[in-house]
Amino acid sequence: xxxxxxxxxxxxxxxxxxxxxxxxxxxxxxxxxxxxxxxxxxxxxxxxxxxxxxxxxxxxxxxxxxxxxxxxxxxxxxxxxxxxxxxxxxxxxxxxxxxxxxxxxxxxxxxxxxxxxxxxxxxxxxxxxxxxxxxxxxxxxxxxxxxxxxxxxxxxxxxxxxxxxxxxxxxxxxxxxxxxxxxxxxxxxxxxxxxxxxxxxxxxxxxxxxxxxxxxxxxxxxxxxxxxxxxxxxxxxxxxxx
Length: 242
Description:
Blueprint: H1 2-10, E1 30-36, E2 39-44, E3 55-62, E4 71-78, E5 80-81, H2 85-104, H3 111-133, E6 144-145, E7 147-153, E8 156-162, E9 168-171, E10 180-183, H4 193-202, E11 210-213, E12 216-219, E13 232-237
Helix pairs in contact: 2-3
Protein name: protein-serine/threonine phosphatase
Cofactor: Mg(2+); Mn(2+)
Enzyme class: hydrolase
């Protein structure tokens, strides 16, 4: 059941066990079956752009730097936009930042706080880096990334999302052939009227922030922005069986 759970939730992305810090920019296409802390999983990816702007990772084992700290599974999906710099930045830093916060707060007694603070830390660090370096690297002013993560600890699953990637859970009830499908995350982009109003309120006096282009709202008529700073965290009990 654990393998079917992960196949359903993250089945459209590549093998996570290769996604350590030595991962090359070559795409990992698929892995039919591999192992993690709670059982087995399968993942696959497909490249949509000339250069793949996305990154992914699966970490199975310690969720902190404490010798007797919590263990579990971490999955990250980073959908880059305008290039791969931001998605790579998240890939190289988010999980280690999460482990640092878990260590500092003595485990996962408050996992929602730990995950949220890790997100904010990565965002603040990336914004600071972009502000310091954009004159030499102008592309930093226009790159970004969605950030969708899942953390399994014990029988609990925590899903955090910023942007318009989407987590979907498929699980099989006893005796049922068809899965129950549940959307676990909320999409955040400029097509959401509430988000447009919030961005307009944050930038008063800026005319024509959003333009409807072929039925899709875009920032300044160009970017279908994924808002990195909107973080919604869902917590469910998954009841993993072996």
